[in-house]
Structure formats: structure tokens, C-alpha cells
Amino acid sequence: MTSAPLVLTIAGSEATGGAGAQADLRTFQAHDVFGMVALTCIVSFDPKADWGHRFVPVEPQVISDQLEAITTAYPPEQLSTVKLGMLGTPATIETVAGALQQRRFQHVVVDPVLICKGQEPGAALDTDTALRAKILPLATFVTPNHFETESLSGMQVSTVEELTEAARRIYETSGAIVLAKGGVRLAGPDAVDVFYDGTTTELLTAPKVGEVPVAGAGCTLAAAVAARLALGNSPLEAARAAKEFVTAGITDRLTSQAPFDVVRQQAV
After folding, report:
1. Residue 66, domain member (yes or no)
2. Rounded to 5 degrees, what are φ and ψ at 131?
3. How do residues 117-157 score in pLDDT, each as one tens digit?
4. Which residues pair with 192 in a beta bridge?
5. Residue 26 and residue 17: Cα distance in Å, rounded?
6. I want to staple 262 with a disulfide (CB 3.0 to 4.6 A). Which of 18, 35, 78, 112 is the partner?
7. If you ran DSSP here, which 8-state letter would residue 58 be given?
8. Where are the beta strands (DSSP E) in 114-256?
């Protein structure tokens, strides 16, 4: 018999495999961590409509059933780390928040997908509001992208200094460790992310691999952070390792007939 670190992802399925739960599980496997998933929605791009999102939420009761099975099978001393990706609707957020309050995890890594593409603007705003109110207070580590960093901090971000200040603001309002991603959105030769935990500020930099965002990078980064935390890394160690992992995955990215490349997760 063997034992291995366990990590749960609560996220959506992305049909092409480039992001969502598929990317999370490959990331866990690459780190030799045993992964499981509670699916929140199904996303399939529409090739006939400029590859827009087709979004189908999973019924809240089905999400509850998945989480009940997972948390019953693996007690807290076995399963202490969870990563949250796309939740998609206020009802899903309510269900997931309730489960997280009932079963406390040591590490709650949140990739704060504020706006779900494929939703009407009003529904997207309701989802955004619910996530801020119900999920962020439960997070221990958040990994917002450039848009999410601006939204959560309430400030525009165009420089590394502004990204650093935004990370500090998000920490102050959420209490969670922050890894704010500048990526290719900031000018300069490097993709810069900012780590802030209330005392330590560190810039994580790597040369840009092209100037266009690669699908699945955000999912992979948060999943890698979760895997590293489950393996016993400190938050800063996890952030550093996750940055290296994503950079390698972007360098070795996968192309397809879709209008975007995707991160390719490789064993560490």
C-alpha cells in the first residue's frame, strides 16, 4: 500500500482539454499528487461562432453529491488542500461555499474567475459579486490574473509597482496570500508576477514566451501552487515552483486549429 498527497479541484470541464479540471488534473499528476475533481460546469468552445464559450452549469445537488463522496472518502488528515477554478453561477458558489465552511481545508487556493465568458452581463455580475462575498473570505491563497487583479484591488495596473500595490490591497481585503499575475500584460521583456503574504513581497520573473496569453496558464499556475502546498512547500516556495512550471509549460505549449495555444504540463 502507498500513500500520496491528495488535492481536490472544484472546477469546470473545458472540452478541448486546455484549461479547467483537465489542466488541473494533469498538473497534479505531473507533481506526483493524487487528484480528484468535483465538476461545476461544462464549457465547450463554439467553432462556428468565433470560438465563443458555450457554458452549461452542473446542478447544485450534483455538485453537493460529488463533494459529499470526496470528503467522506478522504478525511481532513488525508485531504487538506483544495483548488477552486470556474464556479460560474451564484447557486454553484453558494453550494461550494457551504461545503468549504462545513469541511475546513488547510489550503484553499482560489483562481478567482470573476467573469464567466458565455454568460449574459447581468448573470456575470451576479457571479462576480457572489464570489467576492462568499468565496474570497474562505481563501488562503489567491492567484488573480491581470484583469482580476485590477477588479479586486480597485485600481488600474500597468506597471510592476502598481501590480505590487494591487497585490497588497487584495491581501488587506481578503486576508489570503496573493500571487498577482502580470504575465504578458505589462510592458517589458519579462512576465512578472507579484507574491505578497502580508510581510514578504517578491517579484517572480521569467522571460516572456511570446506576447499572447496562452490558454490554461492560470488554471495550471493555481493547480501547481495547490500541488506544491500539498507536498509541504511553504507558500513562497510553492509560488516560485508554480511559476517555473507554468513557464516551462508555455515554452512547450500545444497548438491546434483553435485560435489559441495551450499550456502543456510536463512531469517535474
Report:
1. yes
2. -65, -45
3. 555 545 667 888 999 999 999 999 999 999 999 999 999 99
4. 183, 205
5. 10
6. 18
7. P
8. 141-142, 177-183, 190-196, 201-207
Give residue 66's identity as a one-letter amino acid code. Q
Instruction: Please tell me the distance from the alpha carbon of residue 16 to that of residue 23, in angstroms, as a whole number.
Output: 10
Do the beta carbons of residue 48 and residue 244 sit within 8 Å? no
Q: Which of 109, 49, 113, 47 is nearest to 80 (CA)?
A: 109
Residues 161 and 196: beta-carbon distance below 8 Å: no
Question: Is residue 1 domain-resident?
Answer: no
For residues 70 and 2, what is the distance between their CA atoms, to the nearest angstrom?
19
pTM of full prediction above 0.85:
yes
- Do residues 77 and 221 lie in contact, with contact meaning Cβ atoms separated by under 8 Å? no
- Decide if 28 is inside a domain: yes
Instruction: Say which CATH number the domain at 45 has.
Output: 3.40.1190.20
Q: Domain range holding 194?
A: 6-251
Q: Does 207 fall in a domain?
A: yes
